[in-house]
Each structure stands twice: as C-alpha cells, then as structure tokens.
Amino acid sequence: MLKRILLGLLVTVVLVLAAGYVVFLGLGRGWFGRHQGAGEIMGKAVPAPVLASRDNLAKAAKRARAITSAKQVLFGDLHVHTTFSFDAFFASLPMLQGEGAHPPADACDFARYCSALDFWSINDHAESISPIHWKETVEAIRQCNAVAGDPSNPDLVSFLGWEWTQVGLTPETHYGHKNVILRDLDEEKIPARPIASRGFANAAIRSGSAEQLSWLALAGRDRRYLDFATYLRDRFAVPDCPDGVNSRDLPIDCHEATATPEELFRKLDEWGVESLVVPHGTTWGFYTPPGSSWDKQLNAKQHDPDRQTLVEIYSGHGNSEEFSNFREVVIDAAGNKSCPEPTANYLPSCWRAGEIIRARCEKAELEAAQCEQRAARARQDYVDAGLQGHLTVPGATIEDWLDAGQCRDCVIPSFNYRPRSSVQYMMALSNFDDPAKPLRFRFGFLASSDNHKARPGTGYKEFA
C-alpha cells in the first residue's frame, strides 16, 4: 500500500513539473499571445517651408483657373481602419498573406508623410474595440495632433471616431454602416466607449471562443495567430451594457450597442458631443440584403439632419452614386418574394442560380419540363435565402455566376449593387408625413478609402 501511495505521489509530482515546464515553454514562445497596442508615432511635423510650398501650389492653381473664391481646398480621408478592427486584424494574418500589425500610429504617419493629407479620421469597427483599445485609440489621435506643429496652421488634423457596423438579415431590419466622427478631444467631450451596432455583424464578431483559435498558432508556427486569439479573448471578456440606462451612467468597461440609427442618435445626444454620422458603402451587396431600400430611413426617427450631413458616394468598395432601374428581388404588397427576369443591363443572381441548375439538369439528360421545374425551384430558393442565396447552389464556382448581381452600366460599381440604396435614389426621396415640413436628405458628398491597412488617402481597397 505504501509503495502505491509513493508511486502515486511521484506520478503527480512528475505531471505537475511537466505541466509547469509546458506553461513556462509556452510563455517563452508567446503561445498566449501579446496585446496589440497603438504603436508609436515616429515623425515630427512637416516643416513649415513644405507646407508653404503646398499652399503656394494651391494658390497658383486657383489663379490659373481664375478662381476668386476665398475658400480653401483641403484633402482628407474620413474612413480609415487599423488592425484594431476585427476584419483588418484577420486579413493581416500570414494565412491571408497579411503584412502584420498596422496600428493607429501607422495611420498617423502615413497620412502625414505618404498621403500628405490635411485631415483624416480613425473609424475602427466599434463592435471589435475593447475598452483598452478605445483608450489607446484616443491617446494615439491626441499624439498625432500633438506633433502637428503650429496649432493655428497644423500640418495634419486627426479626428477621433469609429464605425457603427450594422447588418440586418432582412430589408426591414437593415440600416447599413455609418462612420461616427467626433469634433473634440477634451476628456469630457469624448464618449467613454464607442457605440456599436446590435445585430448580425456584432454577434458574428463577438461570438465563438478565442481559445479555439490557438490551434492556428500551433499549426502556423507564427506568433501572430496567438496575438489574434488574445485580441478576440479581450473582446469576449467585455460584458454587454445593460439596456435602458443613460450612456453616461453605464459602467466604463461594458460593450454598448444599438439596433437602429434612432438609438445611435439618442445615445450621442446623451453624451452631448459634437459629431458627424456618415453613411457609407450603401450599395455594397456583400452585406446588404436583396430588396433593401433607404426609404425607411427618411423619417424623424431614423435620420438626424444635424449629424447626418454627409454621405460616402465612393470608396474602395466602388461607386454608390448611380441609380439603375432594376431589382435584385421583387417583393409584392403582401411581402411575397420572387425572382425578376434578366434585362440587358442586369442579370439577377437568383435567375442565374436557376440557369446553373438547368444546365446541370440538361447535362443529366432529364426532360425539359423537369429541368424547368428545377430551375424555378432554384430561383425561389435563392430569393428565400436572402444574403446567403449563393449557398443554395452547392458546388457552383465563381465562374458559374458570370456577372450576376452586378450593375453593367454603372461606373466602377460596388459588388452586388443595390440601386435603391444609391445616393441618387436617396436624394430623390421625399417624406410628406408632415405636409407643412417635407423631409429630404440634404447630403454633401465625399469619397473615402475605407482602407484596412492604416493607410489614409490611398483610395484603394486592398481586398479582392
């Protein structure tokens, strides 16, 4: 009996020592990941003579065009992501041929020295910003402004902000993405946390288990994967804020989210901060459900005319300007959905789904009537699946889809174009709920990069 006890103790000691060695080894090799910080802003202000030369060039251009206006033309980018954003961090990993971290400090240096911008804003996804990363973002923007030289004539103005990344699974619940840009950097004029969206995008980013991603580090033999696991773990650890509480009374370290623009505007009012809210990527069908329209946002609840004064008409995603008279899906008065027939300038993806199935049916030498029945079923299956319609045709390749869903007569259109979310469509809308005060969208237009590598002003979206 004594021998068995001693043997048991010996085995236990060996296991404890082995476990300790593994943990020590793991720490040494970085298996537990590192926190990705905001980086270090490397440069100083652009020298005054360089700024003066830029100003002289602008004045010479105005004289050449006989422009007498006293207005000053400035260039900026109000849609910039760093690897504080979930999708940017993911794309920075080796398995996607990523370059590694591109934190906020990189964006500051790039805007100042590479793009020579006059202003820019940081707009990482609020859904993926932890309390520590929000604090680091605020400090990075302050530092970027601190090295901008003469406050009366800075070489670069940097604005704090975030992206409200809302995705609805149906046209009725989809409002799209909006960039929130804050005017001030004083402590009392900055929300304690970015206000995220509530819904599909937020759930996708904040669900799952970071620990399950540790296999990436072991399989890839690259510390960057465990850094990503640490990044996700930091987010999963943040509890949701309680509902029905004024934003200023919420705990500092909770995740605050809203389901609609109305709720977003209300929370910004609770903070009392000066801000812009800029809709972006409005026609991009990657996340916009078929049949979506901006009609439902032109009302006193879902539109704030004092904040929503600009709309992103173009970005690295492509053009969101043009209205084209086609439908990606037909929805009748009763809410029933059907697939529209193709036209000269538009091939509905649902229609193409039917043609892919028809071709397979004919190859199997089935009867024509049966093939038509299967094609009709495939069209309806695609429509019923909404955003996931392409998954209803298993085995289909990119080539099989041809140019289905694309706007053929648009200039550089965004993917899977949604014409009733285009800027031309928005600007043509009117709301006469109050005949004495008709409501219209009064948008100024801007173009942004939506760059996900902390490179403001490039105008290039680095994702295929």
Could you please describe the fold and organization of this structure?
With 464 residues, the chain is of the alpha/beta class. It has twelve helices and 13 strands. The chain has helices spanning 2-29, 48-64, 86-91, 104-114, 131-146, 200-206, 214-220, 223-236, 261-271, 349-363, 368-385, 423-428, and strands at 76-80, 119-122, 157-159, 161-165, 177-182, 196-197, 257-258, 275-280, 310-315, 318-319, 330-331, 337-338, 444-447. It has a three-stranded parallel sheet with strand order 1-2-3, with helices on one face. Helix 7 packs antiparallel against helix 8 (223-236). The longest helix has 28 residues, at 2-29. The radius of gyration is 26 Å and the shape is globular. Mean pLDDT is 87; it is low at 5-30.
Blueprint of the fold:
Elements: H1 2-29, H2 48-64, E1 76-80, H3 86-91, H4 104-114, E2 119-122, H5 131-146, E3 157-159, E4 161-165, E5 177-182, E6 196-197, H6 200-206, H7 214-220, H8 223-236, E7 257-258, H9 261-271, E8 275-280, E9 310-315, E10 318-319, E11 330-331, E12 337-338, H10 349-363, H11 368-385, H12 423-428, E13 444-447
Parallel strand pairs: 1-2, 2-3, 6-7, 9-13
Antiparallel strand pairs: 4-5, 5-8, 9-10, 11-12
Helix pairs in contact: 4-5, 7-8, 10-11
Q: Major β-sheet, in short?
A: 3 strands, parallel
The beta-strand count equals 13
Sheet with most strands: strand arrangement: 1-2-3
Rg from Cα: 26 Å
Number of helix segments? 12
Oligomer: single chain
Element order: H for helix, E for strand = HHEHHEHEEEEHHHEHEEEEEHHHE
Distance between the termini: 69 Å
**How much β-strand is present in the residues?**
5-15%
Question: Uncertain runs with pLDDT below 50, 5 residues or more?
Answer: 5-30
Shape summary = globular
Label the structural class: alpha/beta
Average pLDDT, rounded to a whole number, is: 87
- Fraction of residues in helices? 25-40%
